[in-house]
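Problem 12. The chain below contains 661 residues. Write out its predicted structure in token notation.
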Amino acid sequence: MLRLTPSSALWASLAASAALSLAACGDKTAAPAAEAKSAPTAAQADAFVADFNKQFKALGKYVASAQWLQSTYITDDSQMIASRAGEQALEFSYNEGQAAKPFYVLKDLSPVTERSLQLIRISSVSPSKAEDRTALAAVLSDMEANYGKGQWCRKSAAGNDECLSLPEVEKIVNNVELKNSPAQIAEAWAGWHATAKPIRDDYQNFVGLYNGAAKESGYADAGEWWRGGYDMSPADFSAETERLWGQVKPLYDALHCHVRNKLNEKYGDSVVAKDGLIPAHLLGNMWAQQWGNLYPLVEPYKGVSDLDVSASLQAQRKTEYQTLLAAFKGKPTPVDLAELEHKADAQFAVKMAKVAEDFYTSLGMPKLPESFWQKSMLVKPRDRDVVCHASAWPMDGESDVRIKECIVPDEESLTTIHHELGHIYYYLMYKDQPPIFQNGAHDGFHEAIGDTVTLSLTPEHLKKIGLVKDVKTDEKAVINSQMKLALDKIVFLPWGKLVDQWRWKVFSGEVQPADYNKAWWKLREEYQGVAPPMARSEEDFDPGAKYHIPGNTPYTRYFLSFVVQFQFHKALCEAAGFKGPLHDCDIYGNKAAGEKFMAMLREGQSKPWPETLEKLTGTRQMDASAILEYFAPLKAYLEQQNAGKNCGWTAPADPLAAATR
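Solution.
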């Protein structure tokens, strides 16, 4: 892929097309070998791959550094450096793809060289003209910078002008205490979404350049290229994602029905219709992609168990600050107090990251390199703009690994740290593979590793590490725990699928620029059953308010990861000898499970993903049955709660209309 992507093998995506994995190139006509004095040989192919890996590793270090700089220190200068690095990556990709063509027709290649050439072939999609590579690199850099610098500016309660960054706007939209009014939330929601308007034309320009590169490489469009990256044909991949969605859709629909009824009880028919679409801003998340912040509203059995991890973390962070304040000499000024707050945030962020590291090391994985702690960005700096979207970074294909996250003391951040360290440990496990293989078996694998670990953060585990109290194990406690998790895991599935559904339609031309926003909300209605809080128009560019659109990060990987992580969890629980219900399993400290986990991770992208999946799970097919097994108690509860209720929804004629009128 043309964009190096956070939350996946960043520098490795030069060679693996942003973790799109191996394309099914069998139905493509092989490019003719370039004219030469003699036919290419297998030995020459081996030498070419070796040289590619050497060059790729060196360039990867430079590109990763340039993009790290842009993401953690957003200025015109860092944008220019990142843009130039991206341009060089595109040039390398194109040139190496051309140089590899004579070897594609060879039949007597070693398995390693054959696999390497297949990966190079898909990764070499890049504009052939230098001016187009320059333009593409520039527009990608500009779009990401716009996102990173985005602010909602308004009048404060005191009447002063103030501008809020995304984390600050999210505090209003997330509405953790359920105290903000629908109007207040809608205003903040609209404020952030307005930051994407400036890149609407940029995105149209990007699509033209990106599609042009894909077509030059024999693909119908960039969407077909992306779908071709899973060791199967693009058509088969589309069918596979639909099959997986079909397995889990009934559970999502049941949860949607229950949550809508609870929101209706709180806000009334004029805000949330009993049988309509849910207003997207009321679901406790800027993009309505996960609804965990609504848990207090939908908690099945009040007071049965204490699952408020955020309150525990915030109390611990407060203690951190009070300790620093007590040690301060003299009377602190307002500046001193602000510095102490920031220092407390930084120190507690490290402690939270150490909690996540401890889980991985308990499985037998190594401690993180000291450079990780020195070079990672764990809190938002006070002095500059950064991209707070959490991401993991393999800087050199060796031991320089980092995360970039604006950690705050809440459960979401703690879960995110576990997720990002999943990427980090994947990088460390496959670092001895040739650079071309330093990536996930497919991109969903990379996203699933850390989430697999979080499935072991059961109430019992959280109690064990001092983050919750009063843990009960009866049926009511199980339903509470499952509801809390399902508001993240099950709710995410339709969102995880629709983001790329929209992009694929844009890339193919089925959705024209004049209908960008209309098509976006039509898909959100179809898959999520949500609608905008206020009427939208084509002057808006609501897809661009989600990082992965301006950041050009493929999104189906997340949908796939939310499926395979449960497969991984089940396999690891079996390896650990666990015999109880799947939702009770905690693999913490189990070296047998850890060794099986690491054996899969060490493979990287060296083999087709079905082989790697089989190594851990014993099956070569992705399957959502483990999700249904895990959430069986919740499904039964939802069926009881929804009995006699009007479930499902009908989409209005105009997808841009407000949720309620």
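Discussion. The radius of gyration is 24 Å. Students who got a different answer should revisit the alignment rule from Section 12.3.
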